[in-house]
Design goal:
By secondary structure, the protein is of the alpha+beta class. It has one helix at 2-22, and strands at 37-43, 54-59, 64-69, 75-78, 84-91, 98-105, 111-117.
Length: 134
């Protein structure tokens, strides 16, 4: 019994330390690779960071796609990109989609993007049944 408790607790702590070593905990993104697109996504009105924004990266000459999400700080980093022209699409439920075309990645410098997303406004329209009298 004590051996199994020790085994499970050591596996738990080993898992936490390996997660920290692999970088799965959120940390600010900074450019390391010169062929990289990095930056942050914030809410337009409050300037607060938006986490879990889905980013689709499309290389425009051959339509290859890569998808990732922003971290808890609203930051993202896309590395291992080939030089070329990219299109990035930022999407999150409750916010207007943002599309950035013609992002040029060169072999000698990283590209920084800071994106602001606006919340979608819900417009109320009358139901068709509103006009009927009972």
């Amino acid at each position: 019994m004590i051996k199994s408790i020790f085994l499970y607790s050591s596996m738990f702590f080993l898992g936490i330390s390996s997660a920290r070593a692999s970088g799965s905990f959120a940390k600010p993104i900074s450019p390391i690779d010169p062929e990289m697109i990095y930056g942050g996504v914030r809410q337009a009105n409050s300037d607060r960071p938006l986490k879990d924004v889905t980013i689709t990266v499309i290389l425009q000459n051959n339509y290859r796609e890569k998808t990732l999400q922003t971290d808890i700080h609203g930051e993202f980093g896309i590395d291992d990109l080939r030089p070329g022209t990219y299109k990035l699409v930022f999407q999150k439920d409750g916010y207007k989609k943002v599309v950035k075309d013609k992002i040029i990645v060169k072999s000698d410098n990283a590209v920084q993007l800071n994106i602001e997303m606006e919340e979608t406004g819900y417009e109320l329209s009358p139901s068709p049944f509103h006009f009927f009298k009972y």
